[in-house]
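Structure tokens
________________
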Amino acid sequence: MTNSAPEPAPSINLTQVIRRYFKRELFPLLADLRLAIALLLAIAIFSILGTVIEQGQTLGFYQANYPEQPALFGFLSWKVILTLGLDHVYRTWWFLALLILFGASLTICTFQRQLPALRWFSRTWNFYSQPRQFEKFALSATLPEGSLAQLVPLLEQRRYKIFQEGDKLYAHKGIVGRVGPIVVHASMLLILLGAIWGAMTGFFAQEMIPSGETFQIRNVFDAGPWAAGNIPKDWSVKVNRFWIDYSPEGRIDQFYSDLSVLNQAGEEVDRQTIHVNKPLRHQGVTLYQADWSIAAVRLRLNNSPVLELPMGQLETGGAGRLWGTWVPTKPDLSEGVSVVAKDLQGILLIYDSQGKLIATVRPGMAVDVNGVTLSIAEVVGSTGLQIKADPGIPLVYTGFGLLMLGVVMSYVSHSQIWALKTADHFYVGGRTNRAQVIFEREMLQILNQLETTCQPDQPDQPIELSAV
């Protein structure tokens, strides 16, 4: 008795299993319209949150504005915001994951539905050679007489593109209406790609720079993981001058900053005066006029050289913005006065050590305090700049342009007409993807004109279209 060797177990091809899973399970799920709508709604909701909740602020800011007791809406506190990353929504892993999933859904839908539909359309250029094929049209008619030679001029008048082969005809117009949805999908993919690229490589920074100072961008408060290479290190910016225009009522009208861009050798390569809504752009970095402050006051004590004393912002409990400094009037610093300013119009208030107002002065004026002549030379302002770099913006703008174009293209009706001449009858049928009533009227006009041409001595008879 011989022992037969056991049959080997069939080998499992892991590659085929994975390919089958993607083709039968994952791709249909991602191409599902319901999933795409859910992802789009989620992206919209979190984008709104990123607009409502201030982004990139300090811990103290969120603790002051989103306290735990009482929490906003009963649950939204600073701890929730920081834990979920709502202080930098557009750079969180879950928001980027939503964008990637939505992009994958659009891509798969484009390749599985939109492009095959376009390929199917190219196959519809096949001419219909059997009368029964016209029964499937929503709009069709059978005429006892007629010819392609009579139909062609009528279609040409309506800007149809005509293909003819023997006794068979195919005509269409509005092909851009079929391409429009593909352009819309491609534009949304560009927008998503630009948003992801900007989130990964862009950065935000803030600088408060006194007039006359030169700075490099260092105070970066929000940046993507690949943003280091986009933070400029080979050029700097000099604030030549900062000033404020005031209205006759004393309110701030506009901020201005005269900025120079300097290369590594200190040479000026660009110079612009910026204000709110007019930024400076250089090598993909945009500098916006965002805030202002008072940096210092320059003064003399008797005949001393000009001294520059820094001014700090005072706590006012929300009653306004004030800046102040202390000026010693004795060499041993035993006596002095406080100088307070509220704007750059030049009015300074001088208080003694007991907090009593003793003088009001402007730059160029002098006052005697504690036996010393105090002369005010200048109040030095600081410009507050918001600095941003987003390399994804060109892709986003291109995507929005294509999106508008694709939407307009999608509104164009794509109409198709087939015709067949047999020994006994003349068959005409057609369909459109939108504006059904207008297309039906157009078909009736064509058929009425065709009947009139075939029977010039007969009175016009209305032709009824058969609807399937």
Summary: The radius of gyration is 37 Å. The chain has nine helices and 21 strands. The CA atoms of residues 201 and 227 lie 4 Å apart.
